[in-house]
Amino acid sequence: MEVEPIPQQVRDKIEQIETADLVVGVLPELDPKSFAMVCDTLRALSGAARIAVLRDDHAATPAAANSDAVETSAFPHVVPWPLLTPDASGTPILSISSAYQSVFAACERLGARACCVIASKLDTPSPEWIRQFARPLLEEDVDLVLPYYARHKFEGLLNSSIIAPLTRSLYGKRIHNPMGPDLGISRRLFQKMLAAERSANRVHPLAYLTPAALCDNLVVCEVFLGARIYPPTDWTNISSIVAQVLSPIFLDMERNAACWQRMRASTSVAAVGDPVLVSQDAGTVDISRLVESFHLGNRDLQEIWGLVLPPSTLVELRKLSRLPLEQFHMPDDLWVRIVYDFALGHRLRTINRDHLLRSMTPLYLAWVASYARDLESSSTAGLEQRLERLSAVYESGKPYLVSRWRWPDRFNP
Amino acid sequence: MWQQIKEALAQSTARFLTRFADLLPGIAALIVAVLLSIIVGLILAAIVRRLLASVKFDQRLSRWGFPGLAEWSPSSSPTLLVSRALASLVIVAGFLIGLAAFDAEWTSLLARSIFAYIPNILGAALVLLFGNVIARFIARTVLIGAVNLNLHYARFLSVGVKWLVIVLTVAMALEHLKIAPGIVELAFGILFGGIVLALALAVGLGSKDLVSKSLERDAQKASGEKMEEPFRHI
Fold first, then answer.
1. What span, in angstroms and rounded, lies between the C-alpha atoms of B215 and B210?
2. Any idea where the domains of chain B sit in the sequence?
3. The domain boundary residue, chosen from A239, A272, A305
4. Chain A residues with CB inside 8 Å of B228's CB?
């Protein structure tokens, strides 16, 4: 069964390959030298695995993109494929989801045992990491391989503030980047996703895969990678990003409610490779714009927040808005309760879901401002401690979520 | 002469009594129609009340953006308002049916013209309802969008847009009801134009800082200066 229709121009190329053990989708534009390094690394995988590499045909050279013949004698087989839509910048989450669907389509057609998607550019790329991603899938029967990026303190903020600690609290596994975007997936997990798509609404791969693997007790591991290169922030688009990222996560929470309500304390997952250390930037950051957004939200969005947040939370937010900039601090337990309340509001459709998630943006920016103040002159160790504290609060706040989830009308502190 | 007066009186009394006797069946029919419509209205109101209570109509209405409706409703319950409105409609319909039972031309004409006007009322009510829902949705969208763009006049913009849509809706409803169409058209034009002008001035004057900051950013990008933006969200 095909996940997405395979474009005609690549159908013939896929037919020439016939089968593959591993399909690797390369989304970012890599220069020829880096791409050659990727292919060399894959070639060195043990077991003589047949590997097909899908490369975005916007990134391929015109000659390769227009070529009718795949180099069947060459190994791995390289297939130019339109993986990313031309206007990917406006909706990065949606375009990467469709890129994943394309890789899955190729995987299904070629009967592959596993697939990998390389979606990031790394700060200091090394060829070894691709092999570290692929090897657990081919040799150790791992179902899901996730990245563990070395992080700078002000990068991946949505992941640090919500995605990772929420996944940890809900599903009981300490996963640092549950939504990748670089992922390795086994055929078993990929077919599970296909079955879910057939029976329910379209699932978002990045949000679906980790919870599905954890709920079914599939084998998950992490790979230590270097720091990822993040795209610059577009301030006019933050609310869209927040809505696009959180919507599939909250939908998955609803789908997996029976699973996460049973989970208790969290445990670590196996990690491959050695941790990569990065230096942290010192110096102050300007949080005035973030705090200003929060003040504006607090002034104008009280009516909407009041539909989702309980009175005690609203009172605390009002107190927070009266603090001067130098003392601005959003406590972690307040932030965690806000996230849980918005997840519940999303489930109950208290208001239009898109409105709900976009109205959360000023609260998120208030947390970012608070976090930035905490970590102004922090080292990597300080960063890890800070995030560990936040994760612990997510876990200790889980009974609050469970109570509100089960009795939304009765339990309203 | 006295005999003639007596005869005239007797004839007019007889005519009155005959006329009155002719009206009696109509009056009886009117009373029966009203009584029946009261009974049917009460039964229907009870059914509708139970139905709306089972789907938690009051809570849903509040979530859909109509919390103010509860304030207008008896006992702050929109369910009661709807059920009583329905019962009143049935009773009025019964009264009109009873009126039509009179074999008098003017009552039949009155009943017919009222019945012919009911579709206009229903159409206008639907236009008002949907217009209100759309106005609130658009107002909320504009409010959230403007707040996320750090616009300090977000609330003003949202209220302005909401009233634009409501004014348009009311004008459409009044046109449906065929109430003073010429005056309504003129008043709507003036009001709508006034609101649009006020919004344009507010946005234009209020966005001066935003525009100058945006131009400053573009100039910095062109000169290759690094923008201070340490945060990366995803």
1. 9
2. 1-103, 118-207
3. A272
4. 286
